[in-house]
Amino acid sequence: MSTDETGQGGPAAPNSARHPHGQGRDLVQLVTPSGERISHPEFDYWVRDVTDEQLCFLYEDMTVIRRIDVEATALQRQGELGLWPPLLGQEAAQIGSGRALRTDDFVFSSYRENGVAYCRGVDLTDILRVWRGTASSGWDPYTINMATPQIIIGAQTLHATGYAMGIQNDGADSVAVTYFGDGATSEGDVNEAMVFAASFQVPVVFFCTNNHWAISEPVRLQSHIQLADRAAGFGIPSLRVDGNDVLAVMAATRVALDRARRGGGPTFIEAVSYRMGPHTTADDPTRYRDANELEDWAARDPITRIAALLERKGLLTEELQQQVKDKADAVAREMRAGCTTMPDPEPLDVFRNVYSTPNSWLDRQQDHYARYLATFGDPAGAVAEEGAR
């Protein structure tokens, strides 16, 4: 279900993607909260290849990443992780976009896109390394074409735009995709990235998950217009999509990817969703969020929606539900086992991978630290000190 299977040779991007102006646009939606498949004259084309079997896989993906999220939250509560950023409620935005990408596209994400990382094939244990505190980076970005999560809000948009400029210079048709939340749109880095992307018309997709809360600040406070309409100020076409509708998200992402591959430059996607859980496990959303709001959005749950669609099509069998549950449980077991058996780093590992090539400045620090450890009878320090001699 990648863009290259449907995007090349397709129709021109929908009007909402071609024209940067226009206020108060409706959400692009292909599946209602009750699971009804509705026709859309512009976006149906972009998901025309999604078979019933692939719908079942999307349902499985979303269920699995929710199970990953629940398990990681439990691991944090049990003291196995220092922190965890839940994605509860945002499964459709991550799976719909993640499954639209080609393997040669490169992803630059925030710290919440663990569902996208799952789509890219990340090792489950690698997702947890940073949050357990055993590594400063979870995985090798070039093995899955996804940068490690960025903690600094919005900084990944600059990285994506720079990478897209490299793609453009190489003459390739891959795309850089960057994910960020609604709060990040108020950061200077995001705005600067969009300036450069528009100026040089580089192949980058800005994927904003509007989950309505930047920690404790509501989106209505930070923006008095729809976030998608902010892109018009940079001359970047935008799409506003129902972020709890996995098919609509996939269609919108494919439109943006196709546009970038054809040399049409950047696109801004606002996926309107909701953060059902806390900002991180260190947050208590009940202190600033109305319980009625949470209840309203729970009725638009993305997994319930696709399950309702499958039920309408006669696909939500007991066999399928058991198969999906078994897969989710197996993934959770694998992740928990990887977390609890993860070895602690050696003290001198702090000096590893700081620079791509050795340098005397770092070597000197390592030698001093090794000598310090040796004074406590630390075997690692003693060995390193002997090696230095």
From TrEMBL:
<feature type="domain" description="Dehydrogenase E1 component">
    <location>
        <begin position="62"/>
        <end position="335"/>
    </location>
</feature>
<dbReference type="InterPro" id="IPR029061">
    <property type="entry name" value="THDP-binding"/>
</dbReference>
<dbReference type="GO" id="GO:0000287">
    <property type="term" value="F:magnesium ion binding"/>
</dbReference>
<keyword id="KW-0670">Pyruvate</keyword>
<dbReference type="GO" id="GO:0004739">
    <property type="term" value="F:pyruvate dehydrogenase (acetyl-transferring) activity"/>
</dbReference>
<dbReference type="InterPro" id="IPR017596">
    <property type="entry name" value="PdhA/BkdA"/>
</dbReference>
<dbReference type="GO" id="GO:0009083">
    <property type="term" value="P:branched-chain amino acid catabolic process"/>
</dbReference>
<dbReference type="InterPro" id="IPR001017">
    <property type="entry name" value="DH_E1"/>
</dbReference>
<dbReference type="InterPro" id="IPR050771">
    <property type="entry name" value="Alpha-ketoacid_DH_E1_comp"/>
</dbReference>
<keyword id="KW-0560">Oxidoreductase</keyword>
<keyword id="KW-0786">Thiamine pyrophosphate</keyword>
<dbReference type="Pfam" id="PF00676">
    <property type="entry name" value="E1_dh"/>
</dbReference>
<feature type="region of interest" description="Disordered">
    <location>
        <begin position="1"/>
        <end position="23"/>
    </location>
</feature>
<protein>
    <submittedName>
        <fullName>Pyruvate dehydrogenase E1 component alpha subunit</fullName>
        <ecNumber>1.2.4.1</ecNumber>
    </submittedName>
</protein>
